[in-house]
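Practice record 12: protein with magnesium ion.
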Amino acid sequence: MKTRVGIGYDSHRFAAGDGLVLGGVHIPAAVTLVGHSDGDAVAHALTDAILGGAGVGDIGELFPDTDAVNRNRDSIEMLQLAVELVRTAGWRCVQADVTVICELPKIGPHRAAMRERLARAIGIAPSDIMVKGKTNEKLGWIGNVEGLAVIAVATLEAI
Ligand code: MG
C-alpha cells in the first residue's frame, strides 16, 4: 500500500467579536478570527495537509483570497472540495491529527464536535481524526492572545 504524509499550518489574528469557527464548530468567545473566509484555521491547516500529501497544490492556490467567491466562505466546503480533488489525483485521506495552539478558547469541550464535523467532511470515522488544544505558555503573539495557530498532519493512501 502506497502511503503519504502531508503537513499543514495556519494562523489567524483575533479581533473583538462574538465567537469563532474552528473545525466547522462555532465556539462562543469574546473574540473572532480575522480572515478572508470564515477564518477556520483548523479546516485550513487540515486542507493544506491533505493537499500537500497528495502533491496537488495548496489552499492559497485553490481558493485565492483575491477571488470574491472565497469571501466569508465556509471552510468545511473548501475542505470537502480539496478532498474531492485529492481523490481525482488518486489519493484518499485515512487519518489526520490536529493541534490548535492558543491561550483561548478552550479546545477540549469542542473536540468531539470538531472530530465529528471534520471526519464527515473528509469521509473518515471520527476516531480517525484527533484534535488537541495546547497553550503557548503565554509566550509571544499567541501568548499575548493576538491570535492562534494550527498544525495538522494527514496520512493518505493510494486509491
Ligand atoms: Mg487560513
